[in-house]
Write a structure and sequence with these properties.
transmembrane transporter activity, transmembrane, transmembrane helix, mainly alpha, Amino acid/polyamine transporter I, membrane, about 500 residues, about 70% helix, globular
C-alpha cells in the first residue's frame, strides 16, 4: 500500500530525486517491506543528521571527566584520535553491509540476512535487542547528560558565598531531564517534516560555536596557557587504576561521543538513495567529527586548570569550569556555553528520532512484546508515534535510577556504548566469517581495506564490553559504582525471557 506522503514527496522531488525514491522503494520491496515513511532526506541531510546524532562538541563536553581522571591530556587528545580511527573502521564496515541491505531494521536485519539459516533466528534476535537497547539508553544518556550539563552551566554564576545559584538537587536534575525528554519527543513527533532543516542548521551552529570557544579561550586565557608538551605528552592518572588500564577506562569519553555512528542506519527508509547515501554519510561524518573534536578540545587543554580540582567537582562537569577560568567572567562563560546547550537539545531530538525507528523496525517483525501496537505508523505525523512513546517511557523509568545513585549517567552511557558497539559487531563478524561474499555485491565494497576494517571493528567490540562495565575510579563505593552491568543484565534477562516465552515458537524473523 502506497503511503500518502510518498506521493507528496515524489511530486515535490526533482526528476533525478524521484528516480532515486522509486528505486529505493523497489529495493525495500525486494527486501520484504512495504514503504510506510516518506523519503525526505538528501545525501547532505542524512550526513547532517549523522553529525547531529554524534554532536561531537556536546558529547565530548559532558563526558570530559572520564579522560581527565583516566589520564589527563594524553587521554583526552590521543584517546580521541585512537578511538576515531577505530570508529572509521566501524563506519566503513557497516557501510559495506548497508549498501546491500538498506532498511530501518539496520544491523538487526543485516544479521538475519547474512547468518546461516540454522543460526539466524537467535543471531538476529540477539543483535536486534542489543541495537534497540543501545538506541534507547544512548538517547537517555544524551538527555540525562544535558540535564547535568545545564545545571553546571547555570552554576558558572555564583552566590555571595561562592556557591552555584542552582543547588542541583537530585529531584531538580530529574525534573530537568524529564522536561528535556518530553521536549525532544514533542519536536521529533510533531515536527518531523522540518527535522532535516534543523539538522542543517545544527552543523553550521556547531562550527560557529566551536570557533567562538577556540578564539575566546585562547585569546583571553586569563590564567595563562599550557605549553605544547603538557597538551600532547602529559599523563596524569587520578583513577586509582594502573596507568595503562586507567587510560583505557578514560576512552569512554571518545567511545560515547562516537557510539551513535550506526544509528543513522535506522533512517534508511526516509532517505532517497539509502544504498549509497547512508554508507557515505557514516564514513564522512566520522572524519568531520574527528576534526571538530580536536578543534574543540585542544583549546580547552591549552587553558586547563589543575586536573585535581576538575576531577573533584561535585557536578562531574568540568567544561563550564574550564571555560569560566579561561575567560574570567560568568556571563562570558555562559555565553560561550549556549552553543553547546542548544546542540545538546538538537542531539536529543536526533537520537529520539533514530531510537523510535529502531524500535518500530524491530516491532514490525514481532520481536518486541506488544508488537502490534508499536509497529503502527501515525500517518498524519508520518512517524512511528507509538514506538516513540514506548522509548520515552522506558527512558523515564530508567532515569529514576538517579535517585538511588548519582553515578546513573555512567551506567546509561556505558550501557549505550556497550550494546550499540556489540550490535554493530554482530553483522560485521557474520559477514567476515562468511568470507565477505555478500558485501562484494554492494556499491560500497572496499576489498582488502574492508577486511582490515572488519577485524579492527570486532576487536574493538570485544574490548568495549568488559572495559565500560568497570568503575571509573577505585576504591569503589555505592555512589561511584558503575551500574552499566546491572542495566545490561536486566535488558538481557528481558530479551531471553521473551524469547523463551514467545520468540522460540513464534518469531519468524524479517521477511525474505
Amino acid at each position: 500500500m502506497e503511503h500518502k506522503n510518498d506521493k507528496v514527496t515524489a511530486s515535490m522531488a526533482r526528476p533525478g530525486e524521484e528516480t532515486d525514491i522509486g528505486s529505493a522503494d523497489e529495493l525495500l520491496g525486494s527486501l520484504g517491506y512495504t514503504p510506510e515513511l516518506s523519503r525526505n532526506r538528501s545525501t547532505l541531510q542524512v550526513a547532517f543528521m549523522s553529525f547531529v546524532l554524534a554532536s561531537i562538541p556536546y558529547g565530548l563536553a559532558t563526558t570530559l571527566y572520564y579522560p581527565l581522571v583516566g589520564g589527563g591530556p594524553v587521554d583526552i587528545i590521543w584517546g580521541w584520535v585512537a578511538v576515531s580511527l577505530i570508529i572509521i573502521c566501524v563506519a566503513a564496515s557497516l557501510g559495506e553491509i548497508t549498501s546491500v541491505y538498506p532498511t530501518a531494521g539496520g544491523v538487526y536485519y543485516q544479521t538475519w540476512m547474512l547468518s546461516p539459516p540454522k543460526w539466524r533466528h537467535i543471531a538476529a534476535w540477539t543483535c536486534g535487542w542489543l541495537y534497540v537497547v543501545g538506541n534507547i539508553t544512548i538517547t537517555l544518556a544524551v538527555n540525562f547528560g544535558t540535564a547535568l550539563f545545564l545545571v553546571a552551566c547555570v552554576n558558572v554564576f555564583e552566590t555571595a558565598e561562592g556557591e552555584g545559584v542552582l543547588a542541583g538537587e537530585t529531584y531538580e536534575v530529574f525534573l530537568i531531564f524529564l522536561g528535556l525528554t518530553l521536549l525532544c519527543n514533542a519536536v521529533s513527533s510533531l515536527g518531523n517534516r522540518w527535522l532535516p532543516i534543523l539538522d542543517t542548521f545544527a552543523i553550521f551552529w556547531t562550527f560557529a560555536g566551536v570557533i567562538a570557544i577556540m578564539v575566546c579561550v585562547l585569546a583571553i586565557a586569563k590564567n595563562g596557557r599550557r605549553d605544547a608538551s603538557f597538551v600532547f605528552t602529559h599523563f596524569e592518572a587520578s583513577s586509582g587504576w594502573t596507568p595503562g588500564w586507567s587510560f583505557m577506562i578514560g576512552l569512554l569519553h571518545a567511545a560515547y561521543a562516537t557510539s551513535s555512528t550506526g544509528m543513522i542506519i535506522s533512517m534508511c527508509e526516509e532517505v532517497r538513495a539509502p544504498a549509497t547515501q547512508v554508507p557515505k554519510a557514516m564514513v564522512i561524518t566520522v572524519c568531520i567529527n574527528t576534526v571538530a573534536g580536536l578543534m574543540f578540545m585542544l583549546p580547552l587543554v591549552f587553558v586547563l586548570p589543575e586536573i585535581s580540582d576538575l576531577v573533584a567537582l561535585s557536578s562531574g562537569q568540568p567544561v563550564p569550569t574550564i571555560i569560566k577560568s579561561a575567560v574570567g567572567s560568568s556571563g562570558g562563560a555562559f555565553g560561550l556555553l549556549i552553543p553547546l546547550i542548544v546542540l545538546a537539545m538538537i542531539c536529543g531530538i536526533g537520537c529520539t528520532t533514530a531510537a523510535s525507528r529502531a524500535i518500530w523496525a524491530f516491532a514490525r517483525d514481532g520481536a518486541v512484546p506488544g508488537s502490534k501496537l508499536w509497529r503502527k505508523v501515525n500517518t498524519k505525523l508520518d512517524v512511528p508515534l507509538n514506538a516513540m512513546m514506548l522509548s520515552m517511557v522506558v527512558q523515564i523509568i530508567l532515569g529514576v535510577i538517579y535517585f538511588g545513585s548519582t553515578a546513573a549517567f555512567n551506567a546509561f552511557s556505558g550501557v549505550g556504548v556497550i550494546t550499540l558497539t556489540a550490535a554493530y559487531a554482530v553483522p560485521i563478524a557474520v559477514s567476515l566469517l562468511d568470507g565477505r561474499k555478500t558485501v562484494k555485491t554492494g556499491s560500497f565494497y572496499l576489498g582488502k581495506i574492508g577486511t582490515f576494517a572488519n577485524i579492527i571493528s570486532i576487536g574493538w567490540s570485544l574490548l568495549v564490553i568488559p572495559l565500560f562495565c568497570m568503575p571509573s575510579v577505585i576504591p569503589v563505593e555505592a555512589a561511584t559504582m558503575n551500574y552499566a552491568s546491572v542495566v545490561f543484565f536486566a535488558f538481557t534477562a528481558i530479551s531471553i525471557a521473551w524469547y523463551v516465552a514467545w520468540g522460540r515458537k513464534h518469531y519468524a524473523g524479517p521477511p525474505t
